[in-house]
Automatic annotation (TrEMBL):
The keyword DNA damage applies. Keywords: DNA damage, DNA repair, Nucleus, Transcription, Transcription regulation. Pfam families: Tfb2, Tfb2_C. Its main location: nucleus. This is General transcription factor IIH subunit 4.
């Protein structure tokens, strides 16, 4: 800038919302080299194929047996102009995931061809071939076989151990040091500056109200980010996770042929509740619903951190409505903001305490009330109004969910939903915009010249003629700065 004015950058953005990336978003953030390694596993190729947009899957199948590049114009002709937007998204997804690559055809025209490793291993996954899955080795009947009810209870106990630790519950026995390190690495917890104990963060509060499937997937993403520090291959671990997601609940699988690294990884999954193994040298293990439901993670209408999440402490282990029969709604919300929770678990009580003022606790019943202060405390912790409402609706008592008790069929009365959103709106009366401040102009004419130019370019956010101050959007800063440098050059 010239001597007659100075600019100052302002960053007013509030803390970001916790993001739980689905498989597409996670792989998109990885390097092409990592993706190339990953596509050597048929299981991953099948998982990626299933996550693609419908039109992208059509493109893949049409190109799967073509051994030469296909002109991009020909691919575009497969879709009518009325679906041009869907075609653009499909092409973008295939390029972001390195599923196909640009390749020239004779004559110099651009073409598309599927990545060689992806094409080869997707054929293996769809048509058979390749090496047998080592986990499917035949086993003698298990004399101490575990049924689905036992596996559900085991997964519930192990995963709730992690959540108990996050909410500071006394029931934290059994959590592994590895799980604590992952919580700290993910920013869900942090070390207290005074005594060094682990305390929950704003992101951790949001994490607690995500669905169980999203919690597990987000947790495992951070595990994969630190896999190299454990001398493990992130690609091999991810491939094994998706092998588990395609397994059968209640069936035991063999550890024969597994490398030492994968045996170590299996023990970590055992600690988190994704697999059950009676003892380390048992030679067999049972996947639980936590592993099978990884493929159920989808981006909800409210985003990863929005209303699309629910669950948290009430561990709905079943994906797509396949939870254990004993896991039913237990919350009643009255129109006077009273909340009744028929529960005996301290974790569910701790979760309710995040956004309600707890009044009474009995052996199988907890009574609380939604107040302005309790909701605002949750909002300060990073929890949104939609998350609170969705949590209460997801766990509403069956009678409330069916419309009884004034729930309106959703489990929470409209007056209660509106009030919670109004309490949130009280805190959102300001719109935050990043920008650059221009001030200290030597003359009113200089200020007016820069202000009028910024306004004409549509990048002026605010200005004050009295103080000769203008606020310009961040993306318009370079444009305005170049204009001012040109104007302020001595003639």
């Amino acid at each position: 800038m010239s001597e007659s004015s100075k600019s100052k950058s302002l960053n007013l953005n509030p803390s970001p919302t916790l993001q739980c990336k689905n498989l597409h978003e996670y792989l998109k953030s990885r390097t092409p080299q990592f993706l190339e390694t990953l596509y050597n596993y048929p299981t991953i190729c099948l998982a990626v194929y299933r996550e693609l947009p419908e039109l992208a899957r059509h493109f893949v199948i049409r190109l799967l047996f073509v051994e030469q590049p296909v002109p991009q114009a020909v691919v575009a002709s497969w879709v009518s102009q009325t679906h041009a937007k869907e075609q653009s998204k499909a092409c973008e997804a295939l390029s972001e995931l390195s599923v196909w690559q640009e390749a020239p055809i004779p004559g110099g025209l651009p073409g598309w061809i599927l990545a060689q490793s992806f094409k080869k291993n997707l054929k293996v996954a769809l048509l058979g071939g390749g090496r047998p899955w080592s986990m499917s080795s035949s086993l003698e009947p298990d004399g101490k076989a575990r049924d689905i009810a036992f596996l559900d209870a085991y997964a519930l106990e192990r995963w709730e151990c992690v959540l108990h630790y996050m909410v500071g519950s006394a029931q934290t026995e059994g959590i592994s040091a590895d799980a604590v390190r992952i919580l700290l690495h993910a920013g869900l917890m942090t070390r207290d500056a005074e005594d060094g104990s682990a305390v929950i963060t704003r992101a951790g509060f949001q994490f607690l109200l995500l669905s169980t499937a999203k919690q597990v997937w987000l947790f495992l993403q951070h595990y994969l980010h630190t896999a190299e520090k454990r001398s493990l291959s992130a690609a091999e671990c991810l491939a094994f996770l998706y092998q588990l997601s395609f397994s059968t609940l209640g069936k035991d699988y063999s550890t024969e042929g597994m490398s030492n690294n994968m045996l170590v990884f299996l023990q970590h999954l055992r600690e988190f509740g994704l697999v059950y193994q009676r003892k380390r040298k048992a030679g067999r293990f049972y996947p639980t619903r936590l592993a099978l439901n990884m493929t159920c993670v989808r981006e909800g209408p409210g985003g990863a951190g929005g209303a699309g999440g629910a669950g948290g402490g009430h561990l709905a282990l079943g994906g797509a409505g396949e939870g254990p029969p004993q896991q039913r709604g237990y919350i009643i919300v009255e129109t006077n903001y009273r909340v009744y929770a028929y529960t005996q678990t301290s974790l569910q009580v701790a979760l309710l305490g995040l956004f309600t003022e707890l009044l009474y606790r009995f052996p199988n019943l907890v009574v609380g009330v939604l107040t302005r202060d309790s909701v605002r405390q949750a909002l300060r912790g990073g929890i949104t109004a939609d998350q609170i409402i969705h949590y209460l609706e997801q766990h509403a008592h069956p009678q409330m969910a069916s419309g009884g008790g004034g729930g309106g069929g959703g489990g929470v009365a409209g007056t209660v939903r509106d009030q919670v959103r109004l309490w949130e709106a009280e805190r959102n009366r300001f719109t935050y915009t990043e920008g650059v401040v221009y001030n200290q102009f030597l003359s009113a004419a200089d200020f007016a010249l820069l202000r009028d130019y910024a306004r004409a370019q549509g990048v002026l956010t605010w200005s004050s003629e009295r103080t000769r101050t203008a606020l310009v959007t961040r993306h318009g800063h370079d444009l305005v700065r170049r204009f001012w440098k040109k104007h302020s050059k001595p003639s």
